[in-house]
Specification:
By secondary structure, the chain is α/β, with parallel strands linked by helices. The protein contains ten helices and 14 strands. Helix 2 packs parallel to helix 3 and helix 5 runs parallel beside helix 6. InterPro entries: Aldolase_TIM (IPR013785), OxRdtase_FMN_N (IPR001155), YqjM-like (IPR044152).
Amino acid sequence: MAKLFEQIQFGSLTLNNKIVIAPMCQYSATDDGEITYWHEQQWANYALSGAGLCIIEATAVQAQGRISFADVGLWNDVQRDQIKTLLGKVKSISPMPFGVQLAHAGRKASTDKPWLGKGQIKPDERHGWQTVSASEIGFNPEDVPPHALSIDEIKQIQQDFALAAKRAVDAGFDIIEIHGAHGYLMHQFLSPLSNHRNDEYGGSLENRMRMLLETFSAMKEAVPDQYPIGVRISATDWMDQENGWNVESSIELSKRLEDLGAVYIHVSSGGLHAQQAIKIAPNYQVPFAAAIKPHVNVPVIAVGLITEAEQAEEILLKGEADAIALARAILYDPRWPWHAAAKLDEKIAIAPQYLRCQPHGLKDLFSEF
């Protein structure tokens, strides 16, 4: 059997294959952070894709933690109840598990929808608000600097992550991912480029990891025993490797997260600094996953310009990662897992309504959910 189509365990959760739909912001929620019809059709599309798991977009734990005014939120019970209704519909057509990525954008909040423009919306402008971060250092020089969080405000954010985690369980999500990557709030605390604090949340690596580790622990306490929580990290800032966040720091963080009960480490990179110099190419982030994998016993997920079935299979065969996450590739080709199964001579379970479209010559490609 192709490794891509083997089962994998994320803690107590079993996936039928190792294809994960990575979180992708849709910027299509209401101004109140509530889901819309766009999410209904998008989640249903994900559910019928044949992937082993879908993790929905970065979902804010506070209103000021949204990347944009059109981000999904889980900071109140109305949002929870609407998501619960939609998840019930989605799970009626597919057994595929769904997860949610809980997030706070920190200094990268208060932006416009990406197709309408880039950059910060100022606090005194429509759809804008005052951002927060570890320190008063803006992402861009022209940004209104973020407010440096007080200790009490840090504790409130940690509590809001825990409350959102409880709502995620109540809504019916099968797994939670905490967003510690891409220059958002948790990453802002991790990197010395954005964290210039001189208290217990800044300075040493131990102190800079504290925000994420304490937040993870608060979430674990809020959910049932054995409920799975994973973490997405940026393995490097793609900046000065000595002074920025780097792979060595990511290895230490991953080990600490495993000790606290993380069921996987999802390895991305970048997003912390506007002048990052990313060398984009197929598999460009896979070496980071490969570097972390020997140091932890939980699954490591690779992501980043993995677009072909054979490419994904080779990563797994080489032992560079344990699972493969797809983002833009599955937006472009929502049936990517079907096509991967055909290329790798594997069978994939699909909805019975689609069985009649089994390609000629591939009569053993599809089975029913």
